[in-house]
Amino acid sequence: MTRLPTRRRRALRRILRALVLVLLCNYVFGIGLLLPRQAVWQQEQRQGVSGTRVAARMWHPAVYATHLFYLTENEEITLLADTHWTLFGWESGFGWALDCTTGAPFYAGERSLSRQGRDETLWCYYGRVDAPEIAEIAVSIQAEDYVDGRPVRREVAHLSAPEGAWYEKDGRRYFLLYMTAEAWDYKDSFRRAAVIALDGEGRELSRFDINDGNYSSYG
Question: Which residues does 84 contact at the CB level (< 8 Å), separation at least 6?
Fold first, then answer.
C-alpha cells in the first residue's frame, strides 16, 4: 500500500523548492535579490573588493523612489554603491571604490547619477579623513573658462561638512556630501569640483581637484 504524502511534507517540499529557486536566482543569475546589501556585494565583487562594512546608508529619490546608497569601507578602500527596488528584487546599480592606501591625509571621490528624460542630477562627494587635524571637509563646485588662453574659475556652489556630521567605522572617519542640480547652466564652461580640508579654526590645510569617480545614467 502506497503512503500518500501528508500536507506538512508537501508544504516542506514546496518551501525547499522555493528556497533553491531563490538561491539559484540570487547567486547564479544575480536577480531576485532579497536584501539591498546583496546588490552592494555584487558591486564590490565587480571591483575586486571584499571584507567591507557599512559606514553609512542614505535614501534619496532623485533617480528612483527606492534608491538607497551605501558607504562601505575597509582598511584599504572607501566605496559608494547604490541600489533600488524593482519587481525582480533589489537591483545592483553602480559603485566606485577609492584607493585609500597612499598615505594621504584624506581621500575624496565623486559620483553623479541621472535618469534619462529627467534634467535633475544627483551629485555625491564622499571619502575618508585620516589626518587628525582635519575638522571640516568642503567641496567647491566651480565653472572653468579659458581667458586669454589661461583657465579661470568661479565658484557656483559650495558644500561643507564639519567633523560632527561625519561617520565613523572601525576607528576611521568618513564623509558623504550630496546635492541635486538641474542641467549644467554654464554650458560653455567646464565643471570642476575641488575638495578642501580645514582645521578647527577654519584654516585651509589642503585642497585638490576630484578626478576619481563614476558617472552613471539610468534608463
Answer: 63, 64, 66, 67, 68, 90, 91, 93
Cα dihedral 123, 127, 131, 132 sign: positive
Q: How many CB atoms lie within 10 A of CB 176?
A: 21
Q: Are 123 and 169 in contact (CB under 8 A)?
A: no
CA–CA separation, 163 and 189 (whole Å): 32
Per-residue pLDDT of the chain (219 residues; tens, 9 = 90+): 555 567 666 666 665 554 544 444 555 445 568 899 999 999 999 888 989 999 999 999 989 999 999 999 999 999 999 999 998 899 988 899 999 999 999 999 999 999 988 888 999 999 999 999 999 999 999 999 999 889 899 999 999 999 999 999 999 999 999 999 876 777 788 999 999 999 999 999 999 999 999 888 887
Delineate the domains of the chain, giving CATH numbers in brackets: 8-218 (2.60.40.10)
Model pTM score: 0.84
3-state secondary structure of 187: coil
User: What is the SS3 string spanning 64-84?
Assistant: CCCCEEEEEECCCEEEEEEEE
